[in-house]
Amino acid sequence: MRVLDYEIPDTLCYSREHEWVRIEGKEAVVGITDYAQKQLHEIVYVEVQKVGANIEQFQAMGTVESVKSVSDIFAPVSGTITKVNEELAESPEILNQDPYGKGWLARINLKDFKNDLKKLLTAQQYADYIKEMEK
Amino acid sequence: MSKSPKKTHLYEFHKQTAKMTEFVGFEMPIWYKGIIPEHMAVRNSVGVFDITHMGRALITGAKSEAFLNYVTTNDVAALTPLSAHYSNMCNEQGGIKDDFVLSRLEEEKFLIVYNAANRSKDYEWLVKNSKPFSVKVEDVSDSIAMFAVQGPNAEKTLQKIADLDLSKIERFKCGWTRLEDVESFLSRTGYTGEDGFEIFVWNSPIENPTNAVKVWKAIMETGKEFGIETCGLGARDTLRLEAGMCLYGNDIDETTTPLEAGLSFVVKLKKDAFIGKDALTKHKAEGIKRKRVGLTMLEKGIPRPGHDVWKNNERIGHITSGTFSPILERGIAMAYISIQHATEGNRVAIKIRDKLSEAQVVKFPFYDPAKYGHGRQK
Fold first, then answer.
1. CA-based nearest distance B237→chain A, Å
2. Domain check: are B225 and B344 in the same one?
């Protein structure tokens, strides 16, 4: 769905810190939302923890920087990083161009998604959350 | 109680076209199209900035030269009418109260343009120190609008609406002109490293924005053929950083001296008594222990203010400004580091979050001055 100026795909889960999660079997693909990339604007640097790193839900798993600002990326789920999007090191602007596609950040081998899910938002809930913030 | 932020003459225009931010009590545009395209427009062609938030004061009277020579570090006697120079005001300890551009309008009339963050501090300092001199210090910040038109096509852009031959105005010279038939003063100065002008739309009170808006719109119109961009505070910061220019509050303040900051070219120790002279003379004789340097990243990562600088397992200083350079497409920074390490070419490490990343001491500006900046080869 599209809310205000922001794309919010119906099939994903979201965190209040503006990360998205797509489940693929035992793994999750994660990234930052269209809202996040539009707020950051002109992303010039992305850093994600290395493959093999164990991360806990809502703990910092990386950093994204625009020309002026530095923001933490919080893991929307717990687990082990199995892959990071290497392309972002050379072309961080992909995060602005395609946040839900080519701009994915990492793949995470899920530890306890059932539990994580309780603290995530559906697309509709995230849309309401954005609307509330933009008021 | 927090006061609501002040607005400039162009507030309505900015609000509709820019992402806004509050900066030292003003609601200002941070970017319109984006920091990078605005930055590149200034380096490659032309950009226009609303810098009305800057502080401005007029100093008039027979003793104004003597007064300004006492309160500032540069040689005011060397300023001929309709010229300008960059200068500092120091406290008695030699710490920098502010940096600014001083223009001599007439033999006994000067215009000082200082940092927005220091508007009241500077005005009060000037008034306080003016007592023994028979001069008038008048805060004109709210009655003059101020724009900067910067970039290699700045002169061509402005010439079409100016009734003065701008090619006759050399760098750091000034003149009176009508811009789109509005009385204005301009100086060939700026905060980007590029050629360009700073424009003062005279008699333009905030309450009556008509003249300021008229000049701004005319500049946008004549700049169209050069692809002019309206530029916000974001690009202003990346441009000045690439040029190696200080930002007060970040790179200089009352705890740093002009000698440490690499600004000794504006400190004339041979002139008569001025505030901070004794301290700076002693400081020079003893030798500085740290120095402001430029650092260019040799690895990925963006240095930011507060990051520590290391060499051989020893902390040698810290970053005061840092950003992503759109021209170099890598991280750049200004830092104060121990003098023994402040040699061009020296490799140091910057602690960005928990990781040490390699950087190199470079001279200012960060860009190649043969390709960019006011001294570029045409």
1. 9
2. no
Sequence-distant (6+) residues with CB within 8 A of B279 are B90, B92, B93, B94, B257
**A70 lies within 8 A of chain B by CB:** yes
Give the pLDDT of residue B32.
Answer: 98
Per-residue pLDDT band at B142 (split at 50, 70, 90): very high
Domain stops at, among B85, B111, B139:
B139
Tokens standing for A74?
A: 């919080």
- Contact assessment for residue A48 and residue A39, using Cβ atoms and an 8 Å cutoff: no
Tell me, what CATH number does A122's domain have? 2.40.50.100
- Based on the domain organization, do B341 and B229 belong to the same domain? no
Range of the domain at B299: 289-364
Find the closest chain A residue to B302 by CA distance: A45
Q: What is the ipTM of this complex?
A: 0.90
Cβ pair B301:A47 closer than 8 A: yes
- B286-326 pLDDT, tens per residue? 999 999 999 999 999 999 999 999 999 999 999 999 999 99
The helix/strand/coil state of A23 is strand
Secondary structure element (H or E) that encloses residue A30, with its range: strand A27-32
Q: In this complex, do B238 and A41 lie within 8 Å of one another by their Cβ atoms?
A: no
Query: What average pLDDT does range B151-166 have in this prediction?
Result: 98
- The domain that holds B208 is classified in CATH as 3.30.1360.120
CB–CB contact B36 A89 (8 Å): no
Owning domain of residue A110: 2-134
Q: Name chain A contacts of B324, Cβ cutoff 8 Å.
A: 44-45, 65, 67
Asked whether residue B246 is domain-assigned, the answer is: no
Q: Are B106 and B173 in contact (CB under 8 A)?
A: no
What are B209-237's pLDDT values in tens digits? Answer: 999 999 999 999 999 999 999 999 999 99
